[in-house]
């Protein structure tokens, strides 16, 4: 399709054409490892499925269209996508990362990449001067995650992208929490956008997959080289499921955001709740930035019950009936989690508590159910403490 489509059409048509073989409207699941050649090197563009696969290509074109990028790349998981990005750098290179980030991202930085001689500085990126202060000649990558997980801090992408440009540093944004519906980092000047498509993009808690989009041809080439060399690629079935999920991204995100707003407000007004973290509140410390760079505020909320100890948090998450106690986020169903013992257990207690991830904190991924059922569920669980 030549015409550049608006976002709510690009989710359905972006980078997609009916299949050439029989006109199938959805891309077939090309469950093949290899492709016939007429003569050595004479093939139809596909040789081996670690390098390329037509179902994966369809998904890669889709994420490029959604993020307004030129190129997309798909990986076996969000972590495989991040692994590929960081493998562009050499021993001795330095990375500046946001300090409040996904536990698995912290783990791969500190327990895998530091071993290979990369130095990672964790910085509170709500303060741009603190980011600038860490830059030196060895700095090669700035790693941003916004909104952050689980504290829902918002990082202003534009000034960080400008810092990157001024110092020739690549700026990558983990856009998992926002999805391209709410926020488009490449448009704000970032060089790389990365997703755990496991979450909102696939959206149905049925696939683990990672996606990347970039504009720069050379950067794409470097990433595609590592993608093919290291080989952490998704299978065609997972690419198909993610593509199917993406087709409803815009309507799902709209409902996630509406339900999120209603639940954040309910929690804020509840006398048994100490604090609610959600960037849609006008008194959220980064509300202005969130309002400027995001279309809406999404369905991720964290909260702390009054006198918020571990026991109270556990009692609430155990007592929920419509919300499921589970890892992950971004699916159609509502999930509740206890970051200290679940998603963020791989971060040392002193480190996570410094950024607010205390034992009493509960994280919600608000789904697209009838919001009244969700509110009643939270109400009965909170009344037990
Ligand atoms: C889940 C998640 C990841 C990791 O993605 P996987 O698909 O689980 O490998 C990275 N970043 C964020 C923000 C996440 O929520």
Helical content class:
25-40%
> CATH H level of the largest domain: which superfamily?
Type I PLP-dependent aspartate aminotransferase-like (Major domain)
Write out the strand line-up for the largest beta sheet, numbering strands in chain order.
1-7-6-5-4-2-3
Query: Could you say how many structural domains there are in total?
Result: 2
Low-confidence stretches: none
User: Given the C-alpha coordinates, what overall shape results?
Assistant: globular
Number of helices: 14
- According to CATH, the fold-level topology of the largest domain is Aspartate Aminotransferase, domain 2
Distance between the termini: 56 Å
Spell the H/E element sequence: HHEHEHEHEHEHEEHHHEHEHEEHEH
Bound molecules: pyridoxal-5'-phosphate
What does the radius of gyration come to? Answer: 21 Å
Structural class: alpha/beta
- The CATH architecture assignment of the largest domain turns out to be 3-Layer(aba) Sandwich
Mean pLDDT: 96
Task: Summarize the SSE layout with pairings.
Elements: H1 7-13, H2 54-66, E1 71-75, H3 78-86, E2 94-98, H4 103-113, E3 119-123, H5 128-134, E4 139-145, H6 157-167, E5 170-174, H7 179-182, E6 192-196, E7 210-214, H8 217-230, H9 236-246, H10 249-269, E8 273-277, H11 287-293, E9 300-305, H12 310-319, E10 324-325, E11 335-337, H13 349-354, E12 362-365, H14 371-382
Parallel strand pairs: 2-3, 2-4, 4-5, 5-6, 10-11
Antiparallel strand pairs: 1-7, 6-7, 8-9, 9-12, 11-12
Helix pairs in contact: 2-9, 3-4, 12-14
The chain binds pyridoxal-5'-phosphate.
Pyridoxal-5'-phosphate binds at residues 77-79, 102, 104-105, 145, 149, 174, 176-177, 196, 198-199, 208, 210.
């Amino acid at each position: 399709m030549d015409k550049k489509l608006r976002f709510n059409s690009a989710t359905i048509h972006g980078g997609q054409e009916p299949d050439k073989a029989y006109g199938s409207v959805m891309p077939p699941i090309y469950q093949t490892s290899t492709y016939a050649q007429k003569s050595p090197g004479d093939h139809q563009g596909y040789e081996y499925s670690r390098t390329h696969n037509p179902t994966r290509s369809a998904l890669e074109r889709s994420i490029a269209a959604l993020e307004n990028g030129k190129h997309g790349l798909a990986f076996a998981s969000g972590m495989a996508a991040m692994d590929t990005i960081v493998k562009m750098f050499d021993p001795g290179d330095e990375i500046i990362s946001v300090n409040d980030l996904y536990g698995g991202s912290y783990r791969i930085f500190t327990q895998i990449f530091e071993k290979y001689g990369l130095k990672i500085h964790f910085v509170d990126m709500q303060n741009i001067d603190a980011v600038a202060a860490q830059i030196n000649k060895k700095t090669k990558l700035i790693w941003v995650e916004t909104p952050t997980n689980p504290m829902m801090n918002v990082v202003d992408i534009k000034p960080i992208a400008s810092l990157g440009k001024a110092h020739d540093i690549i700026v990558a944004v983990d856009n998992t929490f926002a999805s391209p519906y709410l926020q488009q980092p490449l448009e704000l000047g970032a060089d790389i956008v990365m997703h755990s498509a496991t979450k909102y993009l696939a959206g149905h808690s049925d696939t683990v997959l990672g996606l990347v989009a970039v504009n720069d041809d050379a950067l794409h080439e470097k990433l595609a080289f590592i993608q093919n060399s290291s080989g952490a690629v998704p299978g065609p079935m997972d690419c198909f499921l993610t593509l199917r999920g993406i087709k409803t991204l815009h309507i799902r995100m709209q409902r996630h955001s509406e339900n999120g707003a209603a639940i954040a407000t309910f929690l804020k007004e509840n006398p048994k709740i100490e604090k609610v973290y959600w960037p849609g509140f006008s008194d959220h410390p980064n509300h202005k930035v969130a309002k400027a760079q995001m279309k809406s505020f999404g369905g991720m909320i964290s909260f702390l019950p009054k006198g918020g100890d571990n026991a109270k948090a556990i009692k609430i998450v155990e007592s929920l009936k419509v919300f499921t106690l589970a890892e992950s986020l971004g699916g159609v169903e509502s999930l509740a989690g206890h970051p200290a013992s679940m998603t963020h257990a791989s971060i040392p207690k002193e480190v996570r508590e410094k950024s607010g991830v205390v034992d009493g904190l509960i994280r919600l991924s608000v789904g697209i159910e009838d919001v009244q059922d969700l509110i009643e569920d939270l109400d009965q669980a909170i009344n037990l403490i």
